[in-house]
Amino acid sequence: MAPPRPVCVTGGGGFIASWLVKLLLSRGYAVHATLRDPCDPKNAHLMQLDGAAENLRLFKADVLDRTALAAAVEGCEGVFHVASPVPLDKLVDPELEVIVPAVKGTSNILEVCSTMKVEKVVVVSSTASVHFNPTWPQDKPKDESCWSDKKVCMENELWYFLAKTVAEETSWEYAEKNGLDIVTVCPCIVFGPQLQPVVNTTSELLLYVIKGGPNAMNDVMWEIVDVRDVADALLLVYEKPESSGRYISAPNYITTKAMVELLRKAHPKYNYVKCKTDVEHNSPITPTSSEKLRNLGWKPRKLEETLLDSIEYYQKTGLLQDAEGNGYSCHLPEMFSFFHAAK
Ligand SMILES: NC(=O)c1ccc[n+]([C@@H]2O[C@H](COP(=O)([O-])OP(=O)(O)OC[C@H]3O[C@@H](n4cnc5c(N)ncnc54)[C@H](OP(=O)(O)O)[C@@H]3O)[C@@H](O)[C@H]2O)c1
């Protein structure tokens, strides 16, 4: 019998993609992972994963380089498109830094998938493409029919949110026009232990909460999903023949204050961020429903496990040592200031 055809994961060294590659290898898949720089030590963890020596191949590819993407996708049965910039700092040129790689990168990979006759493509979108919808009824949980309004993203200079919305819209337009089988998954904020050695943007956000700022945060609603459950969701929608359309993966809600209390109870020695409870804020984050994904068989873990496993990972790797020592100093990622930074 011929061996099963491999699957490709773009941006394989990132926070979410590393867990996906690990999961795929553990389930016996052969994996082609694309990386911008396979020789960068920040990607060294991939070849250490169980099964990597036999079943993981690394390909050098920027998502803006269609020829390089084609070399990675050739022979693959399925593709998981995960690569997209998640910026930490204020953008100097949003078009160049985020919008082009997110949108053009997505259409490039989809075009390659069509040419290479890939059977199914899973595109990682975000609840960034769901939440910014001022016309959605306040009392109704947002579901997969809710789309962010690009004008609202633009007016508020929320470039990452705009990029994810346009990239997902572009995916659907392309798939419908070209008959490509795609599914999109929209995770909320992703926390959990890292496999990669460098700190990704959302882990930076949680480190900011634990290390205590320096600046206060609004006491707003957070939606949180575990990175291991996102990997499960991506594989689930890939493997289920009946999966179709968008899938929100946002199983847990908590306020800033409640999250700090939960973490402080287990780990009292950190400073934790101060919460402003008495201020008007402009957060558009309201409950969303992950019912569609749960109905497909998705079983995300409890929030407490995600938060405690994250803090334990940061402790173990020295990320919570004093910033003055050889520890890691953190700052609030710019893209979260809109919701979280207290004025
Ligand atoms: N973390 C979250 O809370 C969250 C929530 C919802 C959706 N998402 C989505 O999940 C995906 C992965 O995010 P993450 O949190 O795992 O962040 P991450 O660790 O920063 O991963 C992003 C990956 O994208 C790659 N990338 C960026 N620009 C690229 C380009 N031009 N060509 C090729 N690769 C490029 C990066 O490669 P380099 O290492 O070479 O920079 C990195 O591997 C993204 O699509 C993001 O929008 C994340």
Automatic annotation (TrEMBL):
InterPro entries: Epimerase_deHydtase, NAD(P)-bd_dom_sf, NAD(P)_dehydrat-like. Pfam families: Epimerase. Keywords: Oxidoreductase, Signal. Residues 1-30 form the signal peptide. Residues 7-244 form the NAD-dependent epimerase/dehydratase domain. One of its GO terms (molecular function) is oxidoreductase activity. PANTHER family: NAD DEPENDENT EPIMERASE/DEHYDRATASE, NAD-DEPENDENT EPIMERASE_DEHYDRATASE DOMAIN-CONTAINING PROTEIN. This is NAD-dependent epimerase/dehydratase domain-containing protein. The lineage of its organism: Eukaryota, Viridiplantae, Streptophyta, Embryophyta, Tracheophyta.
